[in-house]
Write a structure and sequence with these properties.
InterPro entries: FAD/NAD-bd_sf, GMC_OxRdtase, GMC_OxRdtase_N, GMC_OxRtase_C. Belongs to the GMC oxidoreductase family. Keywords: FAD, Flavoprotein. It holds the Pfam family GMC_oxred_N. By secondary structure, the chain is of the alpha+beta class. The chain folds into 2 domains: about 300 residues, FAD/NAD(P)-binding domain; about 190 residues, Glucose Oxidase, domain 3. The strands form 9 sheets. Strands 7, 20, 21, 22, 23, 26 and 27 form a 7-stranded antiparallel sheet that branches. The chain is globular, with a radius of gyration of 23 Å. It binds flavin-adenine dinucleotide. The site of flavin-adenine dinucleotide has 41 residues, from helix 2, strand 11, helix 10 and helix 17.
């Protein structure tokens, strides 16, 4: 429904969920399992249906940035990146970032979740206790029985809601990458299944793809059999402008924040409001959630007062602790004509590929761009680890990631064929922020991922690049790799640092801006049950609550958090 339908309906709701994104739609689905509970999900963006750049897996890089499905944010100038500002995509559409992301589905390591449990003091966030929720999320589509060993069946669930699958269309670089894992097995071991809790090594990418089309929280958790539930309502094109105190508890005196104020996403002066009968849940993501909290006066009181927002509840951690993965693409000219650069330059070939996808949901467009991922740690004797303490969650967590692709992701140069290894620092120590310079809810917040604030992250990125350069120097790739188009393996550290600062962007994984901490901690925004500290009626369920960033792409963790949160909410209102 749209806002007009909602206003005309006079409906009331037990649960109001702000943001129909990755986490929000999990909650919409799970909470509406109880027919007695009425739910509304309020989403700022529009429908995901019929948007080809969302549906066709290989078109994912076209879904953002700077599109109608993107919030079109830009970071503030990054001191660590030669003062460049970066595009900072977030899904502005039903399904949120799960509708526009690159679909890699990586849970992360046991250590990542055990650190969540340690810092929150709640063992429910440990790997062992979360596996059941990972399995509720995942509906794995095993490849045909005769395909080569590319996954461990024991790791996967066939009965969850969100489709996950392995690449179906084999690309020219696939066999070369896998062969290198046996030729250089010491440094680049093959990992049969990176979702086992022990991700280290190189293995096949698992992606949120359902028979050749994207699986997002909108296509899975809001599939027709769920969205037609009479107690589940989804309102599109409606921007939540703040949350408001509706009452206070006569028993504890604590303020109750169960009212939400909203407006058409197109803007204008009109404001409407609804009060949840049971709970208001923010699932607006790592940028949207702290933005709404601060607009509501929940945050650091002096900063809020300085931009004319009346503080309503003091929680200085709101918007702090922004953590993201710095990301850099490296490409090499190769001695092969079978890369996906060809179709980017040849309209006839591109049309043929689209026709194949359109008629059978197969072919090169039915998979994402990256068929293998690698999760690697520095060797224990690395000088980086001698100069800095280990920033990872533990010995099972990677320091950096390699993403392999059979061509240039995006627009290639006019001639040549390419192989790409993108690299990312996945155990970063830099911390950034989301702040406001305006009380106008339609003004973008100031986003500062603060890349390379920490020298340790720059040192890790340097090692990641050197590692990718060693990978392409493998003897089996000698007649394949011709020359680097980005940076030479002979570059000095200073030259490499300068290249990194000039070319690094975001892997689009912001987390941590409304972080969970232990009950009674003097920092953090939510308690381990994800309720906002010091108030009643308000909970946060999205990537903003992560206290640390997993050494992984972040959607699987986000789905997992939302699945557990649904159980916590059900338990609280049973
Ligand atoms: C381009 C891109 C590529 C990525 N690639 C991968 C990948 O390959 N693998 C992976 O695991 N992760 C990837 N990620 C990250 C992953 O998608 C996110 O971590 C995850 O989806 C975040 O989920 P969320 O629920 O926290 O937020 P979102 O899914 O972003 O949901 C937030 C929702 O809230 C809505 N909203 C925000 N503010 C308001 C408001 N004021 N009123 C109403 N609605 C509002 C938004 O429109 C959105 O729908 C990528 C992200 C992007 C953007």
């Amino acid at each position: 429904m749209d806002l007009t339908d909602l206003l005309a309906s006079n409906l009331t709701f037990d649960f109001i969920i702000v943001g129909g994104g990755t986490a929000g739609n999990v909650l919409g689905n799970r909470l509406s399992e109880n027919k007695e509970h009425s739910i509304v999900v309020i989403e700022a963006g529009g429908s995901n249906a019929d948007v080809l750049n969302i549906i066709v897996p290989f078109y994912a890089p076209r879904a953002t940035p700077h599109t109608a499905q993107d919030w079109n944010y830009t970071t503030i100038p990054q001191a660590g990146l030669n003062d460049r500002s970066l595009p900072y995509p977030r899904g502005f559409v039903l399904g949120g970032s799960s509708s526009v992301n690159s679909m890699a589905y990586t849970r992360g390591s046991k250590d990542d979740y055990d650190r969540f449990a340690r810092v929150s003091g709640d063992d429910g966030w440990s790997w062992q206790n979360l596996v059941q929720y990972m399995r509720r999320n995942e509906r794995f589509h095993p490849p045909p029985a005769n395909s080569p060993e590319r996954f461990d069946p024991a790791v996967h669930s066939l009965t969850g809601i969100n489709s996950v699958s392995l690449p179906k269309f084999l690309r020219d670089s696939d066999a070369r990458v896998v062969e290198t894992t046996s030729i250089l097995s010491q440094e680049f071991p093959f990992n049969i299944d990176m979702n086992s809790g022990s991700p280290l090594g190189i293995g096949w990418t698992q992606s949120t793809i359902n028979n050749g089309s994207r699986s997002s929280s909108a296509t899975s958790y809001l599939a027709p059999q769920y969205i037609t539930r009479p107690n589940l309502h989804v309102v599109l094109n409606t921007m939540v402008t703040r949350v408001q105190q509706s009452n206070h508890s006569s028993r504890t005196g604590k303020p109750i924040f169960q009212t939400v104020e909203f407006a058409p996403s197109t803007g204008g002066p009109n404001r409407f409001s609804l009060t949840a009968k049971k709970e208001l849940i923010l699932s607006a993501g790592s940028i949207g959630t702290p933005h709404i909290l601060m607009l509501s006066g929940i945050g650091d009181s002096s900063t809020l007062s300085s931009i004319g927002i009346k503080p309503t509840h003091i929680l200085p951690s709101v918007g702090r602790n922004l953590i993201d993965h710095p990301f850099l693409r490296l490409s090499w000219l190769v001695n092969s004509t079978k890369t996906f650069d060809n179709a980017e330059r040849n309209a006839t070939l591109a049309a043929e590929e689209f026709d194949e996808w359109n008629s059978t949901k197969t072919g090169p467009l039915a998979d994402s761009a990256s068929s293998q991922l690698g999760w690697l740690r520095l060797p224990p004797n690395s000088s980086v680890l001698q100069n800095f303490s280990d920033p990872s969650a533990g010995p099972l967590s990677a320091h950096f990631e390699l993403l392999f692709a059979n061509g240039i992701v995006g627009t290639p140069p006019p001639t040549g064929n390419y192989f790409t290894i993108s690299v990312a620092v996945v155990s970063p120590t830099s911390r950034g922020s989301v702040t406001l310079n305006s009380s106008d809810p339609f003004a973008a917040p100031m986003i500062n991922p603060n890349f390379f604030e920490s020298d340790r992250d720059l040192a890790l990125m340097r090692e990641a690049v050197r590692t990718a350069q060693r990978f392409v120097a493998a003897p089996n790739l000698a007649d394949y790799i011709l020359s680097p188009i980005s940076i030479n393996a002979t570059a000095s550290d200073a030259e490499l640092d300068s290249f990194i600062r000039q070319n690094t962007g975001s892997e689009d994984h912001p987390v941590g801006t409304a972080a969970m901490s232990a009950v009674g901690a003097d920092y953090g925004v939510v308690d381990p049950d994800l309720t906002v500290k010091g108030v009643l009626g308000l909970r946060i369920v999205d990537a903003s609550i992560f206290p640390f960033i997993p050494a992984a792409h972040t959607q699987a963790a986000c789905y997992t958090v939302a699945e557990r949160a649904a159980d916590l909410i059900k338990a609280a209102f049973n």
